[in-house]
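lol forgot to send this yesterday, sorry. struct tokens for the thing we talked abt
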């Protein structure tokens, strides 16, 4: 797995909108906030485009931006401006061979999960499930900011055994080691049956989501179970599941107890990464160790 060099002040960040659009005001503010952190900034055309109301420009514009930022020798890192919907529409237009030869820090979450799967599995590039500029950095939570820079610039192992305002909890005790894969559950399910479907054999699976009712979480987890994805993984990290409750039937946690607990795989939950503040940045594609018994997760160097 290729791990791109870290990020320091004075480096250039390329900002892209591979999914949903933002207003010109938010795009301008996104550029300004990164400059105030001490970075040079290149804004993609997609950051100022819209198409169909829910896309940041036509598919070729969004794909061109991602390709261009990877190709640009001046760009040290690429951060998505927001999620939404649209990444899967333009994945086939990404030049994965060129990207593999030009590794960069790549950051995003939510709909960007589709690109993480592609870059991890087809490009052999480690990427980061972390904050996006318009979504998180305009009012950058200090814990979120610290986690972001600590993880992307890690020189040694990073141990996560506590988090701000929330306790990591245990669903199944035990320990596991492997590449960390995953992201947004809905996007993982949406790529099943495509060339980009998730590979979990021997890996630690991380999942999170927002606004999904328990029956929908049940359906998507059942799909992964029937496809062997839950059986093949070594352990699971259940991230934040914001706004995922209902007044009737199972809670989201009861769905996890019903589907995941019987697998007897080391599993922790209430891990604050996903659509939440504060949030922990996770290095997808990197080797990690999960000690569920002691509520500890370690990102390994290299």
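and heres what i got for the seq, position by position
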């Amino acid at each position: 797995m290729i791990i791109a060099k870290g990020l320091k002040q004075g480096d250039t960040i390329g900002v892209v909108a591979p999914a949903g659009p933002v207003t010109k005001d938010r795009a301008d503010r996104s550029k300004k906030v990164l400059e105030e952190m001490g970075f040079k900034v290149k804004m993609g055309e997609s950051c100022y485009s819209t198409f169909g109301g829910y896309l940041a420009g036509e598919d070729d514009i969004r794909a061109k931006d991602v390709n261009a930022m990877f190709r640009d020798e001046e760009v040290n890192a690429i951060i998505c401006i927001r999620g939404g919907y649209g990444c899967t529409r333009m994945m086939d237009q990404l030049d994965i061979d060129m990207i593999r030869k030009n590794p960069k820090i790549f950051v995003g979450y939510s709909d960007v999960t589709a690109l993480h799967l592609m870059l991890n599995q087809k490009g052999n590039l480690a990427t980061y499930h972390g904050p996006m500029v318009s979504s998180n950095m305009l009012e950058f939570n200090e814990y979120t900011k610290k986690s972001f820079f600590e993880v992307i610039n890690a020189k040694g192992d990073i141990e996560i055994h506590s988090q701000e305002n929330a306790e990591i909890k245990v669903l199944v005790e035990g320990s596991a080691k492997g590449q960390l894969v995953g992201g947004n559950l809905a996007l993982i399910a949406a790529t099943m049956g495509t060339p980009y479907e998730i590979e979990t054999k021997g890996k630690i699976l991380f999942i999170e989501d927002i606004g999904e009712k328990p029956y929908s979480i049940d359906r998507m987890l059942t799909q992964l179970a029937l496809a062997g994805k839950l059986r093949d993984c070594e352990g699971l990290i259940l991230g934040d599941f914001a706004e995922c409750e209902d007044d009737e039937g199972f809670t989201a946690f009861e769905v996890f107890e019903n589907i995941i607990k019987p697998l007897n795989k080391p599993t922790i939950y209430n891990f604050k990464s996903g659509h939440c503040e504060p949030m922990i940045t996770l290095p997808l594609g990197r080797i990690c160790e999960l000690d569920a018994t002691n509520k500890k997760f370690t990102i390994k160097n290299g």
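Residues 24-36 form the longest helix (13 residues). anyway ping me if u want another try
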